[in-house]
Here is the input.
Amino acid sequence: MNGTHVRRSATTLLAAHLVVGAAVLLAAPDKAAGRTVRSQELGELIPNDPAVLTGALDNGLTYFVRENDEPENRAELRLVVNAGSILEDDDQLGLAHFVEHMAFNGTRNFEKQALVDYLESIGMQFGPHINAYTSFDETVYMLRVPMDDPEVMATAMRILVDWASGLTFLPEEVDKERGVVVEEWRGRRGGNARVSDEQVPVIFHESRYANRLPIGSPDVVSSAPTETLLRFYRDWYRPDLMAVVAVGDFDGAEIEGMIRESFAGLRGPENPRPREEATVPIDHDPLTIVSTDPEVAFTQVSVLFKQPPQERGTVGAFRQGLVRSLYSAMLNERIEELTLEAEPPILGGGVSRGSFVRGVDASQFSAIVPEDGIERGLDALLTKVEGAARHGFTAPELEREKASLARRWEATLAEADNRSSAALAGRYVNVFLQGGTYPTVETEVAMVEEFLPGIDLEETNTFAQDWLSEAGRVITVAGPEKEGLDTPDEEAVNAVFAAVAQKDIAPYVAEELSSELLPVVPAGSAVVSEEVIEEVGVTVWELENGVRVVLKPTDFREDQVVFSATSPGGVSLSTDEDFVSATVADQAVSSGGAGEFDRISLNRMLADKQANVAMSIGGLTEGVSGTASPQDLETAFQLIYLGFTEPRRDETAFDALKAQMAMMMNMALTPQMVMLDTLANVLAQGHPRAPSLGTMLGAMADADLDVAMDFYRERFADASDFTFYFVGSFSTAEMRPLVETYLGALPDLGREETWVDHGIDPPQGVIEKVVYKGLEPQSQTMIVFTGDGEYSRKEELTLSNLASVLDIRLRELLREDLGGTYGVSVSSSLSIRPDEEYAVNIQYGSDPERAEELSAVVFEEIERIRREGPDAETVAKVRETQRRDKETNLRRNGYWRSQLLTYESRGFDIRDIPSYGFIESWTAEEVRAAAVKYLREDQFVKVVLLPEEGEG
Here is the structure.
């Protein structure tokens, strides 16, 4: 839903999330223009993609238009306003974001909720397809619309123009929306938010950014006069600060003309306020802050270096981006090694560099560490960074990462024509706001081919030395506050830096890797039967060893194959005594690697491959999932084969896994998790095989690696009851030898197995619980209607329709009419195994003072639907959304993979997957009957989270 947004890198620096370095993809010259990379000067700007139509109107508004048919029959539209919270006056804190909210609550052409109602009526969803965000420096509005009706685009243009110049700010709508904005603020509160309150003034030292967070002040939001909102809108929503972006399946020249005609009449103020750029000082002395809070789940250390902005859009900037990517990848590999020590000093960590705020970049390395090991974790992290600075990297590391980077660009080139319209639109938004260029993929790959071979160790090693400057450095530490835990102060943290600077650090020794993942190719076995289901383009094979393979070649993507496999059994076949070890068996194997390779070596072995395979053991099934490039399919098959036949036992990695889980114990104590555990315990009636998170994490200390490995081997000892599903860019002729060689070689015991029902059943009657936990004035309400059901495909879909109807109605009532919550979530399920059971889940947050008021409205609406059924308008919205989703999903490999597995596992005919029959035929009366059947007033569980101060 529409909300605040801090630019990604800044969010990373403020929130308690871990950053892992990523390649910076900038720009390159245009091969199509007949110019070679070698002829370019490094300072020269790189030509833009000629397929983009761009220009500026006389009033200053900029536009970008590009034709793109991924997805087909859709267009992505953006209204970009180069104004955010940084421009707020002192009496407007939070009003940039509030203005954004009001864009969905009344405009010149759409009264009140009519704008959202219209977009939902054409199948677009509030949130995924209708959205907006406010950041420090910009506000961006986003629309996705279908393109099969010319009137839709004309209406969409009216919406964009209304957002730009026609918000109405009706007082009654403003007052209702105040509550929604405050609830968004409330929902973000907690331990991490309180830590952020302490650390933001240090991170944004002596800068306006420190007191201009987009979420703003709830006091200002609650009391600001409408005129104060209007002042921000009139000052900053003006054409010279705006861009319109349109990317989609349309005629570009036609859309360009529509933009010019629609926006030509916009006029800015006669005496516009100057749009001044705020900045953050980057040359201050080192700063350190340590913050603790009883509701912080993880302990994180972060070291931030503020730096001048990188050059954008030049040949040299692109080349420097390649060097930066290589450095980050090599150092992140070394840091990952720390996570696999028997007593790991960090749970995870990494380095990154990117935009911090407008006009300032930042480099950062950070890690999640044990709560009682802050100094040890920081020492380990700094030692890796310092070691790279002193001794540099090794030739094997550099060559491996260069090969990996080249392979990723190769994959990007293969999918050049399949880039999503949303991704392209995002790129043009960024160019408008921050500068730079938007070259073609072919141009970028030409740059990679020219520059990557010439990047040497001297260059990457020089880059490594730039990461330890004291100027502009900010160290932040955030962790839990609890009795008996001694958290180091700022002086102790700073002492770690001094100690590492004097530390004797040995040069890094790169390991030698085997050149082959699987030295001996198995003999395999042949396909013994084939069925072709022409209606859906599916071929089904059965192999001599009983393995069944379902294949659907597609042309949706050029460089993607997705796959999965499933077999009945899972953890349900473990004994109660072995339950904990069995539950983590797949993680034990994943952390150990495969064949002769530990996890780190395996990742390095696969660095230049686009192949990922995950072996998993769930509650009722075991399986395989993954993705691969067509050219790396054999590697994927080899990984599958190793997953079945050579899981690797690694005691050190298992000890590290257990230590990492122990670090997560604080998460089980957070208010939200205590509430969820309470709900889960009630729904499972305290069954020992459905433990709370805290119980499970605590039991992990007794998990046994040998038991886990034995259980894993047992689950994958017999492939004869596995069905594999492959969807993507391949032919059956190409797949056959791979399937016969590798899947045909999987072990066959001829067992007939199924899952075991351990009797984890929902309770009968009404159960209501109140959980008093948390320091903030927050409430969460969860209502679950659950019980025994009778499974059928139609019944499952009807229940889903009921949930969709209820989701829309409760959003309209609780959010739009009452201003009581930021968001409502309604979901449903109807299971077929181990029991036929239904569940309808309703969740929303609110002011504790209004929790019962909103709950009463929920039950009143449920009773209305039970009595009258859904209204025709809501039914039409849900139906059109389903139809539009189906249109795009049928062109998604992942959708076909999941549907093939679901249909087959539940006994449905896969020929029905493309059918729109049910979407077109369901009725309001069926939904009403489902509400009577499933939303029973005598059969539900309700859990409410309230602050601790309210207890007693």
The first strand starts at residue 3 and ends at 4. The domain at 766-950 is CATH 3.30.830.10 (Cytochrome Bc1 Complex; Chain A, domain 1). Residues 1-37 have pLDDT under 50 and may be disordered.
